[in-house]
Fold this protein.
Amino acid sequence: MPIMNNVYRQRAAEKPLVTLDDYRAAGGYTALPKALADVEPDDLQYVFMRSGLRGRGGAGFPMGKKASFLPKDSKKAKYVVCNADESEPGTFKDRDIMAFNPFQLLEGITLAGYAIGAERGYIYIRGEYEHQARVLDDAVRQARAAGLLGEGILKSTLNFDITVYRGAGAYICGEETALLESLEGKRGQPRLKPPFPAVAGLYQSPTLINNVETLAALPPIVENGADWYAALGPEKSPGSKVFSISGHVMRPGNYEIVLGETTLRELIFVHAGGLRPGRRVKAVWVGGSSVPVLGEGHLDTPLDYESIQAAGSALGSGGCIVMDDSGCIVRASLRLATFYRHESCGKCSPCREGTTWLEKLLMRMIAGEARMEDLEMMETLFGRISGKTLCPLAEGAVAPIKSALNMFRDDFVRVVENGSPRPEPMMAGA
Amino acid sequence: MADYAPVDLTAENLVSFELNGEKVQAPAGTMLVDACHALGVEVPIFCYEPRIGPPVGACRMCLVEVEGMRGLQTACSTPVQPDMVVRTTSELATQGQESVLELLLANHPLDCPVCDKGGECPLQDRTFRFGPGKSRFHESKRHFLKPVELSSRIALDRERCISCFRCVRFSQEVAQDGQLTMQERGGRSEIATFSGDAYEARFTGNIIDVCPVGALTSIPYRFVARPWDVTNTPSVCGLCPVGCNTELTLREGVVRRVSGRDEPNYAVEEGWLCDVGRWAYDSADHTGRLHRAVVRDANGARETNMADALSAATLVLQRADGPVGILLGPAATVEEAAIALDLAGGALRGAVVARLGIPAGPLAPLRATRRAEMGDIDDAQTVIVVGGDPSLQQPVVELRLRKAALRRGARIVTVGSRRTGLADVAEHVDAAPGALHAAISDIAARIAASAEPVVLWDEAELAAEPAAADALATAIAANGAARQIELGQDPNGAGLRALGIPATGLRDALAAGRLGALITVHADPRSAPGRDAWDAALGDVPVVSVATHVDATTDRATVVLPSLTLWEQEGTLVSMTGRAQRVRRGADGPDGAAPGWEILIALGHYLGAPPAYRTPGAAFAAAAKAHPGLGGLTYDDMGTLGAPLPPPAADHLAGDAGESVAAGSAGLALVAVRDVHAGRAAQGSEALLAFHAPAAARVSAATAERARLTDGATARISSPHGEATLPVRVAPGLPDDAVFVALGTPGAAPESLLGPDRGPVRVELRP
Amino acid sequence: MTADEIRAYLEPRRHEFADPRSLVMPALKYAQTTRGHLSREDLDAVAEATGFTPSFVESVASFYDRLYTQPVGNRVVSVCITLSCMLRGSDEVWDHLCEKEGIDHHHGGTSADGRITIQEAQCLGYCDKAPCIQVDADETLGPFTPDSAAALVDELRAAPDPEEYWR
């Protein structure tokens, strides 16, 4: 298993690994028996830590470190929760890991459960991914039947089972505490932290929450060793990462690359087939929509956490949205403002009111009803929202719009003066 | 609203930290907002309400700067730590507070001039102090149809709502009625009930008090007054013996609103009121209010003025053929009772004074055991409720028990003949009606096995089973850390007993023909339990009745002296936990009426032997000297939060024992409950229309069937004491072979079925 | 749907959760399969089957986009309008479908015959197939042109309704 998630290789082969036999034939379920036979749970945590694997959901927090935060002496049940609420605009990597390689995820969750001493894992999957949820349901059934989930896994003392839990349409449930609330059957509104989920998570019990891609990376790490993984890519951003690329590119899709080895330009122009003839890159939201926008000048940035951060943005979820020079940055900003307004849970006031305000302000600009003062007003509005909220959702709303105003101020000025007619989209078949 | 939790700055576990450049101290673990408040630094808040539960960090109003922590922190959820450096007024903190206020106001309608909350609105106040100078929100605001009626008592203006979640958290976590929730999401969020049903529960009005904006307002108070038109007076509710501290809002001499106090009494109600206590004030003016005095003679009744009626009363009393009786009602104040006792020692020497209530003798040992206050329930690990149903009789007790269960994980055990209003949080030990004694060894074992149990016991049910009361007293005394709270029946029962006034003696004297006249003070023996016996005892004895409303006694009294109500007159009530608290003068009341204490003092003047005092304060001071039960308290001692009386001795009123009438074993057990929701105040209140229900006999389906009765049919019920006719209600959760009735519903007469000294009763039920 | 039917559905799942509240969401999704939305009776039934108050159940239902507390059409067509889809013509698809079905462009809604609900969706996670459309909770399809989207709606109108509405 040279490349860990194997997502697009499977896609290219048009053969999803949805039967246990196929997954085993591809080298699957070798890590779990190895771990159960040879590795103590604490040592397994250490393997995660040494691999340098960082959370692939967006925040990039070291996975092993997160696992180490769970109390060792707690008498409460512990849980692994897999965050499969993939809803970040431009991001569809987890979708394919689940649809094409579901067992690798189950194996990864089971490894995590073994490492922290949990007996149950949950996959919280967004409600819109009903197809993927059914694939997972089926995979769980197969794994149970084969003794890979349930009591005494592989004749060891490990008892562990997985429940696939469907969300019902709320972006905020990708935020880990909102996800836990939702998984507890409530409205998906983020909790005040501390306590953190590692201490008081699901049902107030110690809980490890990780993204699909993170957990799916565990089997190859266990199989090939932490050193192997840590040696992939740069020291601080080791490993491979699936990038979802969409927008004004010729071959949108998921591309798995080793971090640090590929530039943004290569992702767009080599992997994704570039732009339409005669078009130039205008704006790139490289890590999903909740990150500062990058421009043509940033195309030679290597794709890894540090380099992207140095360029002024964030790697985020790896959902890369590309807009060429036919697009209007103000319209794009409005569309994102609408997204965050719609998805704000309403619990904390700066987000609830701030996202509403941002959207209305941008709508006026598009309609040509704004004045120049509104641009300054919008700048202060960012400061009104930023740093005030309960969870990062509103920061995600501010980041792309604030950066757009900084980088493309001339465009905003022109739109304030003239409004913005709807540009011609890049239609299917074009 | 209380807003901030009380902080003890003299506690032992103080830690030092820096607040706005000054070295300060607060107890470790105190939330920063509370510590700041106690130290005189206001950190603005909206969603924080420590009485409701842990912080939620939703409004983000309390942002402050804490050195070493990235960005701003919510002071409501940041505990004080040693050596932390906090800035609440730095540029960063100020920018944070301004930001949140500007955003909160963005969609707020700013309709303060037409908002009931205007002038007493935390949003308004904090905007002036912490907000940006002006709003820059030029977009169209969010619109909702406004206002909607959440219930017949509460209006909801969703445009003004800032989604602080206080009301829904109250409903979910304090009252635990589960009815009020946040619905929809984001900017469309709104507080709502299921499918827009009315929010009907026992404690709904508290959401008005906790609302920090004008979103939730009292419908009876809508557009009635502006804060600068009114005066607010701290008082005490006189509808049940809990003694909830209230605030009366008065305008032009009329009570317009009753609310929980801004500074709650944590030892009593913690700022929460039941809906009856909050809204029944309008019942003072309902049909039957006595506006003028009445004198009755051979020619019939005539209305007259107070002076004329006092002269007539004086004649009645002077011409009485024998000593006079003075009967004090369950809510007669300490002052009224003390003056009555003074009359009995002076102008009406030899008068027999008694209270209308349950004889104290059988409960004397139990009352002498270690007492708890309501606040002590908070820290109890085990609470045992023996008999009764506090949700109906002493409502606010329910909230304390729920808090103990939800927040502290306390174990709540109810013992009795039916599931109570606490059924969802309590473990229930079944005991047949009138058979608490059968469960007493179980209860005693639980008391013995618990660390610091608090035992709540029902006055009526334990008085009916003296052996059980004794056994309970023994069990409580045996566990040195156990404490008890009496779930009393009478709003001032404890106060009247503290003056040594028995419940027995007077009726016997009347029946024996030894009394020549009777003065009733807020007492209606002709409607009370044992009313038939009272009627028989009263015969043709002339009655002088000091009363607020027309009742069965005033209807036949020779002289009726119209009194002010407890929303209108001063006095002192002693709560069931023995806390003496002052009722303050509120509304003016009818021109023709006077305070009860004043009427009694005037009687002394008319009779030629006036007491030595002219004011209730002086009357109380004299009483405190004369009656050791008052512990030498003064009005100053009581202040605004009251003060505890000394506990009664084990033999106090031991001789106050009623006539014991064998209940017999035939027939069905009668359970009579003094339900505040069924009483005159609630049933006479227009605001409480939702609680209006005709009196009924509630039975199990099997019991109804055996009596060949169906739901709604009229039943004839008879007991050794009398008969009553009531509609039957088949209700779930009731034991078989028992009939449940509520006492005090105007126009109904289940009181006929009871003995005047209470005690167990069995009845027959027939179509 | 009745509380008993919901209980029967939940029973095999009950042991998977330490707190029965976690059953509220599966119960809501299941209760919705009969009518395609959650009526007052459905919400009541979920409350009864799970042991939580109807108000709580409704507050949960109203939070999530894919739980419908108001009636919707026999088929719900979700047109993704978020950034990637917008760049690839989702607004044109949206406008065309709304016009075709006589539905308000600003809010979406249900066709006059009650068969089709057209609603805006936020990013469906099929940006590689932008502009994409999801029908109920079927697998999301794309890319669409205004014409191919209209053809999809025509097909849906002609096709028999699903036996259960998973949305």
